[in-house]
Amino acid sequence: MTAPAVLDGPAAASLIPARGLSIRQPWGWAIARRWKPAENRSRRLPLRYAGVPVALHASKQYDGFADLPDPAAAKALGAAQGEDPLLTLGAVIAVAVFSGSHYLSGTGQNCPGSPAGPCSPWSEPCQWHWAVASVHPLAEPVPCRGALGFWPLPAAVAEAIAVQLPAITGNEKKEATA
Ligand SMILES: [Zn+2]
Question: For residue 26, is the peptide bond before it cis, meaning its omega torsion is within 30 degrees of 0?
Answer without folding.
Answer: yes
